[in-house]
Amino acid sequence: MTTTIPYTPAVEDRTSSLPLRLVLAPAGTAPALLDGAWWPRSRDLTAELPALTAVLDPLWGRITRVTVNPTFWPVIPRKVPVDGHVVGVGWFTAEQDPHKLLLLSYRVGRWDLLVIPPETSPATAARLMTEAADPLGTLTASALMNEAEQRRIAEEMELSLVSVWDSEGGHGASLPTSRSPARAVIAQVPDTTKGI
């Protein structure tokens, strides 16, 4: 069972009026490789982090630090102001999975979230969010993303094959709606049994 938190701010959000797309593993489950998934609407950490930490602060204790891998984040601010406090932002290239966001809290500890790229289709994002929040999950963030990419390629290949099949008269080919009747040829056949 997963918990979906559709974050709708009580006060108007400065970055967006759209709900936060976040799924967390059920509370009290054994630690897994990932604690859930976050599907930001952009790659702008300054715009995206305030809404995320505003939801997580009451659940996990005040988030004080976030780390990312810079592979997918074009700009990494050193600090992001969040509802009365500042969250420090750091980055690691080799040490951190490029598809993961690491959150730290002074009181409680650390959480790892899969970061789903903003351009991901809703169906793929929903599947990834469910898999990342599974407390029995054994895949890393990059492994989940690789699996999703392989699935996307297979689906595109299948669609391509169906398209070729349709273009060659397969599934989409239509039968003629009306046929002109075959013309009957009426002729007298000579009787060869009579003598000439």
Give keywords.
eight-stranded mixed β-sheet, 8 strands, 196 residues, alpha+beta
Q: What is the number of helices? A: 3
What share of residues are in beta strands?
A: 15-25%
Helix content: 25-40%
Q: Going across the major beta sheet, what is the strand order?
A: 1-2-3-8-7-4-6-5
Distance between the termini: 97 Å
Mean pLDDT: 81
The H-and-E topology, N to C, reads as EEEHEEEEEHH
Q: What class would the helix/strand composition place it in?
A: alpha+beta
**Number of separate strands:** 8
Uncertain spans: 1-15
**CA-based shape:** elongated
What does the main sheet amount to? 8 strands, mixed
Radius of gyration: 30 Å
InterPro entries: DUF5994
Pfam family, one: DUF5994
Protein name: DUF5994 family protein
Plain-language structure description:
This protein is of the alpha+beta class and 196 residues long. The protein contains three helices and eight strands; from the N terminus they run E-E-E-H-E-E-E-E-E-H-H. It has helices at residues 45-60, 122-132, 141-167; strands spanning 3-4, 22-24, 36-38, 63-68, 79-82, 85-91, 100-105, 109-115. The chain has an eight-stranded mixed beta sheet. Strand 7 (100-105) and strand 8 form a beta hairpin.
